[in-house]
Amino acid sequence: MKKRLLTAGVCLAATLLMAPAAQSADAITVAADACAGCHGTDGRSLGAMPAFHEKKPAELKQILREYKTGKREATIMDRIVKGYSDEQLDAMVDYYTAKK
Amino acid sequence: MTKISRRTFNGLLGAAGAISTFGISGCTFGSDRVVVIGGGFGGATAAKYLKRYNPSLDVTLIDAEKSHYTCPFSNTVLAGMNSMAFINRSFDALSAKHGVKVVHATVTAIDGAAKKVVTADGQSFSYDKCIVSPGIDMKWGALAGYDEAASHIMPHAWKAGPQTELLKKQIDAMADGGVVLISSPGNPFRCPPGPYERASLIAHYLKAKKPKSKVIILDSKDDFAKSGLFKEGWEKLYEKNLEWVPAAKGGKVASVDAKGGVVATDFDKFKPAVANIIPPQTAGVVAIKSGLADKSGFCPVDPNTFESTQVKDVYVIGDSCIAGAMPKSGYSASSQAKVAAAAIVAVLKGDKPGVFSAINTCYSLLNPDYGISVAAVFEVKEGKIAGVPNSGGVSPKGANAQFRKKEADFASGWYASISQDSWG
Ligand SMILES: Cc1cc2nc3c(=O)[nH]c(=O)nc-3n(C[C@H](O)[C@H](O)[C@H](O)COP(=O)(O)OP(=O)(O)OC[C@H]3O[C@@H](n4cnc5c(N)ncnc54)[C@H](O)[C@@H]3O)c2cc1C
Question: Which CATH class is domain A27-98?
Answer without folding.
Answer: mainly alpha
